[in-house]
Specification:
2 copies of one chain form a homodimer. By secondary structure, chain A is α/β, with parallel strands linked by helices. Chain A has 13 helices and 8 strands. In chain A, helix 1 crosses helix 2 and helix 11 runs antiparallel to helix 12. Chains A, B: Keywords: Oxidoreductase.
């Protein structure tokens, strides 16, 4: 392909300048890219510049790339003008499948055929979004988390028509741009993090609906409970440490029966020996030689650092 | 009642000295209490002292209460000896309903009848655990999070036989001891945080089982994604900010349809106007006058502080 290398991207086009699109604009500017933005809303430029200005102190504190400047943002009047200049396109339109289908077709028609076009969609697959687009081989999902200028994660996944080379190009580009990337091998609705977040969110909605907890109690239960651990160790490693010296193996053998408890409205999978072993072995791979004591010490240092950082120690 | 005031507790008895019980021992010692511990395991004292020693540097860094010392720990040989001296009992036995029923009956028989007995159970209700106990009116759930010496949250909830006065006494005691308390009005299996955590955990297990994500990807998706936000703003306030200036109201009206998406195996409740309003009004109460811009600025400062604290900025 004659596509520019992931490290050689200079101009990023951002289509859509709401909370997510505007967050991307701020991030790419801070990383030293030239950014061209387009959004059909009347007051889009004003809102976008407000959002970039609000994010800039945070980005400055984290460290701007050499030469990074808000002056490298150009807001243009037409999609065609925005896309013609792109080395990479990030689409962040409202979450509406019909709109995405049409917009991605329009973007693809307006963008040089080698240029990768990535969508911020929260959960649609590129297979269902790319139905009307030509050159669909360069359409890919690059799903960020709000705010994209601070949260590192980007989930990258292609559709049926996406070239595998485009998926790895996109993952490389986001990594080069400082992101933390999950490169998915196949389409799963909601990707990874949103499936987990959505399960929690739906359980929370059920609890509010049933009068089991208030909105404030739900938030407190996370910020003062598991949320303090999840900033540093994910749910798997968290439970690896809940098992004491026996780790995840002991945890599953000890708490496995609670999978049958009505602790959430979500049915659990059967804890087959295969699933148990997959989880245990995954934790061991992730621990990568660190003992339970090592991980406990890391967690404790991390929780203390987080509590202190948030002024709560 | 002749019960000691929550502020006048001097001696805490910890029954069970595994990961959770031992964590409680370390916490109460650091807060200046005298702690009496009992555990039937052969090597319980050795493991307990190892755990307390491992936690002590963290607790020292966070600030010990005046006079706090590991020397104020006594490990005794019998449950009766442990309970006779208690101003408050925290039970942290393995998560086994039959065992809890018998043990709580034994603890209640051995403890002066005015003394509150709290269980660390991860999800059983006190109604089902207290079936064999006399003086069940002073039995209550006080559910901590691992490690109890660092994570602030304790969920307090009584059973059918529990006196409401005991529930509020226990909440007051834990607050006085420096904990963040959710005082539940009625029993819900798994309480609040474990229901949310369990929904996420079950979705994660389904994803591993179906080959949709690896253990490492699941953890990365949280630590580098929503987990960074949840240390400072819970899932409700997080989504309040996902709606831009329109807040939760806009978010629900915009992303509400995604509740119908297959983004998790958990069925969503119907987003009735009543549920929508309850969530929106809860967020407004929680925001307590802070504008979206205020909350965005708080979140950004918080995420940056957390990233810096974890050495990831």
């Amino acid at each position: 392909m004659s596509r520019v290398a992931p490290t050689e991207v200079r101009t990023v086009t951002c289509v859509g300048a709401g909370v997510i699109g505007g967050g991307w604009v701020a991030y790419f500017l801070a990383k030293g890219y030239r950014v061209v933005a387009w959004d059909p809303a009347e007051d889009a430029e004003q809102r976008l510049r407000h959002l970039v200005d609000a994010a800039w102190p945070a980005l400055t504190e984290l460290g701007l790339a050499a030469g990074a400047s808000v002056d490298h943002l150009t807001v243009v009047d037409t999609l065609a003008e925005a896309c013609a200049q792109a080395d990479f396109v990030q689409e962040s339109a409202p979450e509406d499948l019909e709109l995405k289908r049409t917009l991605l077709a329009d973007i693809s028609a307006a963008t040089p055929p080698d240029v990768v076009i990535s969508s911020s969609t929260s959960g649609y697959g590129m297979t269902e979004m790319a139905t009307r687009a030509e050159h669909a081989e360069r359409l890919v999902v690059g799903h960020p988390f709000n705010p994209p200028y601070l949260i590192p994660l980007v989930e990258v996944v292609g559709g049926e028509a996406t070239s595998p080379e485009v998926v790895s190009w996109t993952a490389d580009f986001f990594r080069h741009a400082g992101k933390s990337v999950i490169e998915m091998k196949r389409e799963v609705p909601g990707f990874v993090a949103n499936r987990l977040q959505e399960a929690l969110w739906r359980e929370a909605l059920h609890m509010v609906e049933n009068g089991e907890a208030t909105v404030e109690e739900i938030d407190l239960s996370i910020t003062d409970g598991p949320g303090l651990r999840w900033a540093l160790q994910g749910p798997m490693l968290t439970f690896h440490l809940a098992g004491g010296q026996g780790g995840m193996a002991h945890m599953l053998d000890h708490f496995g029966p609670s999978l049958l408890s009505p602790w959430t409205r979500l049915e659990a999978p059967e804890l087959t020996p295969e699933l148990r072993d997959a989880v245990v072995e995954g934790c061991e791979r992730e621990a990568d030689g660190r003992s339970i004591d090592d991980l406990v010490a890391e967690r404790d240092r991390g929780v203390i650092a987080v509590l202190r950082a948030l002024g709560r120690a």
